[in-house]
Amino acid sequence: MLDNCSTNDSNTDQAYANLSPDEVLNSIEEFGFQCDGRLLALNSYENRVYRVGLEDEGGKSLVAKFYRPNRWTDQAILEEHQFTQTLFEQEIPVVAPMTVEGETLLVTEKFRLALFENRGGRALDLEDFDQLEQMGRFMGRIHQTGKAKPFVHRPTLNIETFGYQPRDYVLANNFIPPELIEAYQSLTEQLLISAEQSYQRAGDIALIPCHGDGHPSNILWTDHGPHIVDFDDARTAPAVQDLWMFLSGDRPDQTAGIDAVLSGYTEFCDFDARELHIIEALRTLRLIHYYGWLAKRWEDPAFKRAFPWFNTQRCWEDHILSLREQAALIHEEPLSWFG
Length: 339
Description:
Number of helices: 10
CATH superfamily of the largest domain: Transferase(Phosphotransferase) domain 1
CATH topology of the largest domain: Transferase(Phosphotransferase), domain 1
Largest sheet: 5 strands, antiparallel
Distance between the termini: 39 Å
CATH architecture of the largest domain: Orthogonal Bundle
Strand order of the largest sheet: 1-2-3-5-4
Radius of gyration: 21 Å
Structural class: alpha+beta
Shape: globular
CATH class of the largest domain: Mainly Alpha
């Protein structure tokens, strides 16, 4: 999706690539906050995200997200903001953007950004079935809310957007070593056909507004429960997209895990068991999309620093090996649910 903000000119990408600590602090202070100089870059690559200390706030800090140009339109960002604010108003523990001067999407001469209250916690424990059941409850509430107002400006997660498009980008831009191209091309082609067959077995499943990237690192667990963060990848998707990443271990572990998640989920939202047919298809799409995402961002110096292993011979050999393993898993029977 293309960025249509008022800062969209030929210098925007360069300004973003060269975003400095002084520019981060000055941008935040434009909106009335007084920074105390504490600045920590957080683990984010698609956008630039920082924890920033504030003066006269007893050591408090906020989180500032600077949006990557040419990724989301203003409308898509605002739709995500409105979604998370609605969830927050319903006392679902999401971290929604702050409203500053009546706006959540803040625009400077060079950047678009959003500010968030700083919330801590530890990653979700995938072996703790009580935590999984509680996450199921919150995801059920999130999905029940999302059904009431479908996304208009956010994209849809499907085989085209998460499979064929990233695969074609990798092939068209000569990322794969020549001796591995045939293996990658034939393997991904067969996997995407298998993913389509999985969707066909599931039938006409519903697509709803989802978090989209509900991996454990986006669930910050505290003694009082979770903080659900980073809705930047929110999109229209099958409900199970927000559930399958909570599963770990071998098949018996995953069966017990999905039972715990859905035990909580179905207290607030119906679940179509046919979606269990597409869990491995979604895992396959995530693998293909991830490498396509890294390839698309490879000219960003931040990605080369963060992912030095990418685009090496070993990287593509390991990726093909993972895809071969997935080629076996995608044909297994779906997980059972005893609900």
